Amino acid sequence: MIILGIESSCDDTSAAVIRDGVLLSNVTASQAVHEAYGGVVPELASRAHQQNIVPVVDQALQKAGVDREQLSAIAFTRGPGLMGSLLVGVSFAKGLAASLGIPMIEVNHLQGHVLAHFVHEEGEEHTPPPFPFLCLLVSGGNSQIILVRAYNDMEIIGKTIDDAAGEAIDKCSKVMGMGYPGGPIIDRLARKGNPKAYQFARPQIADYDYSFSGLKTSFLYNLREWVAEDPDFIEKNKEDLAASLEHTIVDILMKKLRKASKDLKIKHVAVAGGVSANTGLREAFLDHARRYGWTVYIPKFGYTTDNAAMIAMVGCFKYQDKDFCSMDKPAYSRVEI
C-alpha cells in the first residue's frame, strides 16, 4: 500500500508518500510572497501552487524512492480551504490518478490535522493516541475541541463562535506592528516577557465553545490608551505584551479543554494545527499531564502546519476500507468534520 498525499488548501504546496503506514517523504514549498500583504492573498496563492505542484510531487516521489507506477492511490485535500488553492491540488490529483488508473481518496483537511498524530517514520518510537481521545485543533482558521471515537468518527463538541485563536494572535501582532505571520513572532517575544504583566478580556462562553473577538478588541483598546500616553510603549513592552497575550489565549483554550476532559472522563488528549507549535501551549499540555494525569500527544513541529503527510495518513486509513471517491467530486471551501 503506497499512498501519495497532496495538500494545497492554503499557501503551502505539499506532497508526501506513505508505504504501509510508514512515512517515506514529506516535501513542502511555502510562499513568502504573502508577508508583504499581512495575510494570504488567494490569487497569488493559487498561482504559486501552479508553479510548485509538479516539482514538489516529483521531489516527494524521488525522496521516497518510489516510481509513480507503484502508487496504490492518491489522497488529496478536497477542503476546506481557499478555493483557488484547492482547485490546483484537486485537479492535479485527478489528472495523475486518471493517467495511472488508480483510485482517488478525498480528505477533509481538518481530519488530516487530527490524524497527524498517527504519522511516523521507519524506526521511530511512536505511540499514537488510542480511541477515543480528545483533540484540541487550533490554527489561524479553527479553534475546536474534537471528540475522536475513530479515524472516521469525529465530533466537534466545542468551537469558536467568532475568531480563531491563531487569527487573534496574527491580528494582535499586526496591531503591534510586529508583522505577519504573527504566531512565530509572538512566540519568540513571549519567551522573554512576563505573562502576568497585563490583563485582557476573557469572554465567558457557555459549554465548550470559544470566543476570541472580545480579547482582540480588549487588546486593541488597551494598546491605544497606553500608546496615547507613551508613543514608545509597544517597543518598550513588546515582550510583556506578547507574553500576556499568549498566556491569556492559552488559558482560555485549556480551561474549556479541562472541562471537556472532566465531563467526558477522557484523559488521552492531543493538540493539532498550526498554533500547536506555540511554546506556551505545548508547555501547558505538559503541565496538565502532570497536574491532571493526562496522557498528552503533541505533534512534531513539521506536522503542526499544513503538510501532505497527514493527508496521506488519512489516505492509508481510507484505503484499507476501500473508501474511494469519484472523479466528479469538486473541491469545497467550507465544511466541518
Question: What structural keywords apply?
Answer:
about 325 residues, alpha/beta, Nucleotidyltransferase, domain 5, five-stranded mixed sheet, 9 helices, 10 strands, about 20% strand, globular
Helix-strand layout with pairing:
Blueprint lengths: L1 E6 L5 E7 L2 E8 L12 H23 L8 E7 L3 H18 L3 E5 H7 L17 E6 L4 E8 L2 E7 L5 H11 L6 H9 L22 H17 L3 H32 L3 E5 L6 H14 L2 E3 L10 H13 L17
Parallel strand pairs: 1-4, 4-5, 6-9, 9-10
Antiparallel strand pairs: 1-2, 2-3, 6-7, 7-8
Q: Assign the CATH class of the largest domain.
A: Alpha Beta
Order of H and E elements: EEEHEHEHEEEHHHHEHEH
| Biggest β-sheet strands, sense, barrel | 5 strands, mixed
CATH superfamily name of the largest domain? ATPase, nucleotide binding domain
Tally of helical segments: 9
Radius of gyration: 20 Å
Give the overall shape, derived from the CA principal axes.
globular
Describe the structure.
With 337 residues, the protein is of the alpha/beta class. The protein has two domains: 2-125 and 303-320, 2-Layer Sandwich (Nucleotidyltransferase, domain 5), CATH 3.30.420.40; 133-301, ATPase, nucleotide binding domain (Nucleotidyltransferase, domain 5). It has nine helices and ten strands. It has helices at residues 42-64, 83-100, 109-115, 165-175, 182-190, 213-229, 233-264, 279-292, 308-320; strands at 2-7, 13-19, 22-29, 73-79, 104-108, 133-138, 143-150, 153-159, 268-272, 295-297. A hairpin with a 4-residue loop joins β6 (133-138) and β7. The mean pLDDT is 93.
